[in-house]
Amino acid sequence: MPLLINGERIDLTRLMGGVIHAHPHLEEKAKLLRSQPTQIVEPKGLLYVQQREFAVTTPNDGSVSILGSDDATTCHLIVLRHTGSGATCLTHCDGSDTEAEVSLIMSSVKSFSNTTGYGRLEVHLVGGFNDDRQLSQKLTYQLLRAFDLQPDDVHLVTFCVTGKKMVSFCSTFKLCFSPAVNVKTAEIFPATFPEKGPDEDLRSAHVLTGARLTNIYDAKTERLHIGPYFWRPFPHVDFWLEQDDQQILQNLSTSPLAEPPHFVSHIRSTLTFLKAHPFPSHSLFPDRKPRVYKKNEEGLWELVCSDKI
């Protein structure tokens, strides 16, 4: 079944500007969304999703009420929600395997919605900027096409992306919008996240070594699962750690002119982690079991000991 806007199938043969022209309410909604004040989301109730990760939960979750992600320059952030069950997914896509990723998140949301006799699937697309190589524009089209190929109707509700002749979501050389979604109310809003854990460096290392899209959360047990991950020693890690900030920015980013100020320090931290853990199966996952976290009484992620898993 097709990808729909107001009950009509999107014509993907049009330029993206044509889509906006045919459905001006999408542009108005994008303007309204980005005009909202940015909210600081504290760790309590938050599940932060990194690049090539996704998480799904429902309004019944007693541990997680907010899903959030940021730093999507050429990447896109997807919120997929079933209006009947309230099952909500947030994922951070970079175009590595778009069709497979969309199918995966569709299946994950539907698995919480099979018993619901009403409701529909709604998708919200956020991210990208006017990059010279048009990586953002290509990813936008890939995502629209991937949703259009799904066997279920999917309704495009929010289209806050950027490309030529598209709604300007974030201007060139400016930090892009970072969304959060309240899984209880379905509200999507601009946000910043002082805390991006747990295991931020470990999860980033997984991405830098070529991770596929990974589900990090089990909503039924309300536990966060990290790994087990396996990689080979990162090539030339000492060389990269010796480079100055500009070299790292230019060579390890898809969008050097649009990265946030902390990009280089984040990459250095990840490279240092990779150097310290060339064989994670030995140092981080000795029993080939995931690192499992649950929210404690203060609402913070707490590592669960293996004998309690």
Précis, in short:
It comes from Coturnix japonica (Japanese quail). The chain is of the alpha/beta class and 309 residues long. It is 28% helix and 23% strand.
Describe this entry's structure for a reader.
The protein is an alpha/beta fold and 309 residues long. The chain has a domain at 3-196 and 212-219: 2-Layer Sandwich (60s Ribosomal Protein L30, Chain: A). It contains nine helices and 17 strands. It has an eight-stranded mixed sheet with strand order 2-1-10-9-7-8-5-13, sandwiched between helices. A five-stranded mixed sheet has the order 3-12-11-6-4, with no helix packed on it. It has a four-stranded antiparallel sheet with strand order 14-15-16-17, with no helix packed on it. A hairpin with a 5-residue loop joins β11 (179-182) and β12 (188-192). α3 (98-110) packs across α4 (135-148), α5 (200-208) packs across α8 (263-276) and α7 (245-252) crosses α8 (263-276).
